[in-house]
UniProtKB/TrEMBL annotation:
Residues 161-212 form the HTH bat-type domain. PANTHER family: DIMETHYL SULFOXIDE REDUCTASE TRANSCRIPTIONAL ACTIVATOR. Transmembrane segments: none annotated. It comes from the Archaea. The keyword Transcription applies. It holds the Pfam family HTH_10. Residues 16-150 form the HVO-0513-like N-terminal domain. This is Transcriptional regulator. The keyword Mitochondrion does not apply. The lineage of its organism: Archaea, Methanobacteriati, Methanobacteriota, Stenosarchaea group, Halobacteria. Keywords: Transcription, Transcription regulation.
Length: 219
């Protein structure tokens, strides 16, 4: 049983309006699909989490014609949860069908990235995973980022991180940031991430906090 970590590039006609909204506004740092109803048909019911201002998002969501029902719930911090029930249009249906057929499992969360790509992990046999890649609809560019044997414990911990946090942590480990003495600085990590040192430090801080909370919560 293997897993693939995928990055899906989307043409303009396929990008969801709310993904476009979040990607177009710098105040939104993270946007993730946490859970969805597995009985996907003409509609889909989903739970999202986003970091950023809730009110502008809620106003934009209310204007999306395919949204049948929604609720936006701010958290105590800088984020908010979204419940949304949506009617799937043709483009969304093709994308959903390619990665929800019965022979593979999509592992939450799904990351909707600022560069308008989608990051997701799928698990299955080599044959079923290849089928999913082959069935990607027109307008979707599939980039296989990682391939490996499925490990539930490792992947559960990784699910606590946004894709950008995971990238920062991976670079930090590879460059020796956590060695004693340190072999890399935050500036080194920022250079590889192509972001400001302050942003890299924030990614690392949030990644470390998420993993600590996951371990303490499980204990």
């Amino acid at each position: 049983m293997k897993y693939l970590r995928l990055r899906l590039g989307q043409s303009e006609g396929i990008i969801h309006p709310m993904h476009e909204f979040v990607a177009s506004h710098e105040k939104y740092e993270s946007y993730r699909l946490l859970q969805w109803n597995p009985a996907v048909g003409e509609t889909n019911t989903m739970i999202f989490y986003a970091e950023g201002p809730a009110e502008p998002y809620a106003e934009a969501l209310a204007d999306v014609a395919t949204i049948l029902e929604h609720e936006v719930v701010p958290t105590d911090g800088d984020g908010f949860y979204v419940y949304a029930r949506e009617r799937l249009d043709a483009g969304a249906r093709r994308l959903t069908d390619a990665f929800t057929h019965g022979s593979i499992v999509v592992m939450p969360p799904i990351d909707y990235r600022p560069d308008r790509t989608i990051g997701l992990t799928v698990v299955g046999t080599a044959t079923s995973l290849q089928r999913a890649l082959d069935e990607a609809p027109p307008g979707v560019d599939v980039d296989v980022r990682r391939v490996g044997q499925y490990d539930a414990g490792r992947m559960d911990a990784a699910s606590a991180l946004s894709e950008r946090q995971s990238e920062a942590l991976t670079i930090a480990i590879e460059r020796g940031y956590y060695e004693t003495p340190r072999e890399a600085t935050v500036a080194d990590i920022a250079q590889e991430l192509d972001c400001a040192p302050g942003t890299a430090a924030e990614h690392l801080r949030k990644a470390e906090a998420a993993l600590v909370h996951r371990v303490v919560g499980e204990g």
